[in-house]
Amino acid sequence: MTASLTLAGCQGGMILGGGSTSPPDSSANRGGPPPQISGIALPEGYSLDANRTIILGEGDRWIGRLSYSVNSSADSMFDFIRQEMVNHGWTEVAVVRAETSQLTYLSGAGDRVASILITRSTLYGSKVDMTVSPATGSGVASRAPVTRR
Questions:
Q1: Residue 116 belongs to what domain range?
Q2: What pTM was estimated for this model as a whole?
Q3: Residue 69: inside a domain, yes or no?
């Protein structure tokens, strides 16, 4: 684990997560994205969960998990994400609106997949877990050796 953390740091990426309950840059709590990521839908006023967030890379090439809570209902978040991900160049692949909603998107370049879970908070608001990973057949996944028998 330590080697991967060091390697990511050397490649110019940033990793959040661990001991702090607030992000290193307080702009994330004011509605701006963590400074190393872009190209996704994030609502104003969200609160980053640094203990559950891990980001590798930067800009619109990052991968990892972004976890946050917001004082908007799960239904409002569902509508917001559904509209804004498309506005950021993502293509909707699958959508399930339920007690725990799930939305799946493919990046404009087709090389990354975003899977988003929205859950209702106990009293009010909602929690969002966005996982962005390389798409199968692209990026790192396509360079894996294939063994044929």
A1: 2-137
A2: 0.71
A3: yes
* Residue 80 is assigned to a structural domain of this protein: yes
From 40, 42, 82, select the one nearest 61 (Cα to Cα): 40
pLDDT: is 124 or 126 the higher one?
126
Residue 148 domain flag = no
b vs e for 20-53, b when ≥16 Cβ sit within 10 Å of the residue's Cβ?
Answer: eeebebeebeeeebbebbebbbbbeebbbbbeeb
CA distance 36 to 126: 24
Give the total number of structural domains in the chain. 1
Q: What's the Cα-to-Cα distance from 30 to each of 73, 88, 91, 120, rounded to whole Å?
A: 18, 20, 27, 21
> Does residue 149 fall inside a structural domain?
no
Q: What is the CATH number of the domain that holds 112?
A: 3.30.310
Classify 6 as helix, strand or coil.
Answer: helix
Counting residues of the chain whose pLDDT is more than 70, the rounded percentage is 68
Contact between residue 115 and residue 134 where contact means Cβ atoms under 8 Å apart? no
